[in-house]
Amino acid sequence: xxxxxxxxxxxxxxxxxxxxxxxxxxxxxxxxxxxxxxxxxxxxxxxxxxxxxxxxxxxxxxxxxxxxxxxxxxxxxxxxxxxxxxxxxxxxxxxxxxxxxxxxxxxxxxxxxxxxxxxxxxxxxxxxxxxxxxxxxxxxxxxxxxxxxxxxxxxxxxxxxxxxxxxxxxxxxxxxxxxxxxxxxxxxxxxxxxxxxxxxxxxxxxxxxxxxxxxxxxxxxxxxxxxxxxxxxxxxxxxxxxxxxxxxxxxxxxxxxxxxxxxxxxxxxxxxxxxxxxx
Length: 279
Hints:
Elements: E1 23-28, E2 32-40, E3 45-49, H1 54-64, E4 67-72, H2 78-81, H3 84-90, E5 95-98, E6 108-109, E7 116-118, E8 121-127, E9 136-142, E10 148-153, E11 156-157, E12 160-161, H4 169-180, E13 188-191, H5 196-206, H6 211-221, E14 229-230, H7 231-237, H8 246-253, H9 263-275
Helix pairs in contact: 4-9, 5-6, 8-9
């Protein structure tokens, strides 16, 4: 099922250039999201983010009348990069960007913080390592509008973060709260999985008195597709982006340990608790 995150267009008299900056979530596999990002409305060119099921993603692009000429890969895991090689067979000449030589069909190795153009959009890749040692988030902006989006793969989820498979709490803290946390608050977050409700149940366990957590959890339980969030919103309900909040620290380490606790220590304990959470 194809689910668009784009709101209905306003009447023609008030049509804004903003409506050209389009992101289309494409559910793939069990609970993954691939995305189509319209990069050039005039040429009807788009990029595909983590197209793990090429047939579905290409069909979604065809339905829109778009042509995929680029793949943005967030990390090498099969449920994100596993469709790349079949994709380029089905659509020869597609450029494949990523930050890890374990990514199939890779043609462009990104450089951290070195922006590049895709059509009319500017893409700033940032290493956001920990889930894997080559995880990349893609921050995308458009000079013709004020819209900003970031594709975070399995680093930042709505209400949560990825497991620390190849990294440390210090690295995840840096990725979430320094690299991504420094993006403008209105930046829309498009993550790699529909894990929102389970993440927010854990957030409610950590902060049972946080009204933002309660409201977002209720909303997620009534909503099929919960992307996007924003960076500013994540800072109100995502415990992994609230490691400096006393209530989160106390829930993670105990009230007596809060004064001496570092954000990195809290990050590590939160991940340990989440790994074992069965709420």
